[in-house]
Amino acid sequence: MWRDLLPIGRNASTNGYRRYAWTPADADCRAWFRAQAETRGLAYEEDRNGNQWAWLGDPTAGDAVVTGSHLDSVPDGGAFDGPLGVVSSFAALDELRARGARPAKPLAIANFGDEEGARFGLACVGSRLSAGQLGVEQAHALRDGDGVSLAQAMERAGYDPEAIGPDPERLARIGAFVELHVEQGRALAETVHPVGVASAIWPHGRWRFDFHGEANHAGTTRLDDRRDPMLTYANTVLAARKKARLAGALATFGKVGVEPNGVNAIASLVRGWLDSRAPDEETLAAVVGEIERAAVERGLRDGVDVKVTRESFTPVVEFAHGLRDELVRLLSGAPVLPTGAGHDAGILSASVPTAMLFVRNPTGVSHSPAETAAEDDCLAGVTALADVLEGLACR
Ligand code: HGY
Ligand code: MN
Ligand code: MN
């Protein structure tokens, strides 16, 4: 399975993955998922929001145990973030069958669409739509960097954008959702444990900062006469780092756009996207507020107007304690850890009892081609997931 997925959407110059929603690489990932389901004789279905499902047992019976993750990537992402969860799900099902386990409940594997939000700017679109956490009109209005709307992209990929929307009946059939994911930090690397259980996801969001200045000649405009948004942007990046450090939060400007983007022209507009996360919502709101204030104050000095738009926000997620404790028991005392990364499991946790397993990442690196996990640890993850599915569905 791993070998088949490896070439899909790989950018040869960086070895990173560019598997964006509703692109040919995404279609190849979906075809792979469908083939994995059909090879195993699982009932395959795709919901109205582009999420894929592979069922063992009757999908309509209720109290299903569902596992899975996503196959899309960030720009030049690693091989593990997402795919490890989907591959491990199929492998865990194979393991259950090899053990001769007889599920008393329906089991399913899911691939949620557009988890990373790399193309349309909003993460977890597939699970958010199903859980009713993203309005249909809001989803239709999302646009990629080329101005293509989500609706147009879905249509071009052969899907019906008019059919998207909340799917409470499907979610009501799920008794538990467990997502396995590569760890995106080094907490497990410092332990003897290859697999951990998630406690919580930090609240996080994305804010667009538009710095409006004035385009002018780089060679003839006196420094005092400039309204250079790049200066305001640069100072805001530094302020974000400082405010986040002081508050014990995280703040990152990882994406930036410049107009007109000419070497010998002062920019007219710099657009930077802030990703910020914190242990609690109050801290997050305070940090983002301080970054915005610093930007506006600096803008006054530079003659630059600053406009801040919140593009997404995901509240803190505290995974269901009962299910989490059950996983720890099934895995003989696996460590419990929080994460700053968002997941479909976090979105679904508002509708369904949800838990996560993390597989040790020796470097902690993620959202990068350098992301990795040892083969033995991945196999331990499969065994752990099989133990969990057996414990939840077969007894
Ligand atoms: O950005 C995130 O937290 C994620 O990996 N979707
Ligand atoms: Mn990710
Ligand atoms: Mn992920």
UniProtKB/TrEMBL annotation:
Transmembrane segments: none annotated. This is Allantoate amidohydrolase. GO terms for molecular function: hydrolase activity, acting on carbon-nitrogen (but not peptide) bonds, in linear amidines; metal ion binding. InterPro entries: Amidase_Cbmase, Bact_exopeptidase_dim_dom, Peptidase_M20. Allantoate binds at residues 206, 264, 277. Pfam families: Peptidase_M20. Its cofactor is Zn(2+). Belongs to the peptidase M20 family. Keywords: Hydrolase, Metal-binding, Zinc. NCBIfam families: hydantase (TIGR01879), PRK09290.1-4 (NF006770). Zn(2+) 2 binds at residues 81, 116, 367. It comes from Streptomyces bingchenggensis (strain BCW-1).
